[in-house]
Backbone:
């Protein structure tokens, strides 16, 4: 697992409800540790569960082993009443947690302090919702957020989950997710709607009810993580250079 010297590398997962954000974080950790794990009690792939409850608060979770300093932020989906808004996302990106997401019951593994900016954003969609057509409100919110991220030079990638629910072939060979006409249709819909590069859209298969990790799932998940770390390292280097110039 890559480390980033003394820095804590922070990744934020955003997206519609039921898109698989929490399961994606759990699955990423499972792929790195080579065993099924769960970062949030009752969430993700654990003991054969296949019901990921809705995230109610913002929290940060470490992925990888104890040496890792890479953390993923999990937060409520867009459609939830009194849930996430574009203003909330942009505040969190700058290291400011809206009060409505604080909770005495929250037990994040690392606190996001004021000024602790996010280094990369994962926008998570599920194939079934994309195929059916995303709500206008969701598309408007995401387009606004992506434009602001671009202005702030904060990198992002798009994670596309649940491709196996559109194709039985993928259930038998998960690497076929790249060849599926259904998934390709979803990829085209996303880069057309959000004007993002096709090479930042990563189809993955989350661990939902599995008891053991799977090589094909891990390949997809770690391919996405590799791109996240590449983009994040570039962002950290640019941040260091900017801070150095400011101190001169």
Residues:
């Amino acid at each position: 697992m890559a480390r980033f010297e003394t820095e804590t590398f922070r990744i934020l997962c955003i997206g519609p409800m039921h898109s698989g954000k929490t399961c994606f974080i759990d699955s990423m950790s499972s792929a790195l540790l080579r065993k099924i794990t769960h970062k949030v009690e009752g969430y993700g792939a654990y003991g054969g569960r296949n019901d990921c409850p809705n995230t109610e608060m913002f929290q940060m979770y470490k992925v990888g082993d104890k040496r890792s300093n890479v953390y993923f932020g999990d937060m409520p989906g867009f459609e939830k009443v009194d849930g996430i808004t574009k203003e909330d996302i942009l505040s969190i990106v700058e290291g400011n947690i809206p009060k409505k997401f604080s909770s005495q019951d929250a037990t994040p593994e690392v606190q996001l302090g004021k000024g602790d900016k996010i280094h990369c954003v994962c926008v998570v969609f599920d194939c079934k919702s994309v195929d059916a057509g995303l709500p206008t409100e969701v598309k408007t919110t995401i387009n606004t957020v992506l434009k602001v991220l671009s202005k702030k030079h904060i990198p992002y990638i798009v994670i596309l989950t649940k491709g196996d629910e559109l194709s039985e072939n993928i259930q038998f060979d998960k690497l076929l997710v790249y060849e599926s006409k259904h998934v390709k249709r979803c990829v085209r819909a996303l880069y057309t709607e959000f004007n993002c590069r096709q090479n930042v859209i990563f189809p993955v298969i989350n661990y939902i009810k599995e008891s053991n990790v799977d090589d094909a799932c891990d390949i997809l998940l770690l391919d996405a993580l590799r791109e996240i770390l590449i983009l994040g390292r570039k962002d950290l280097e640019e941040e260091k250079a900017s801070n150095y110039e400011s101190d001169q």
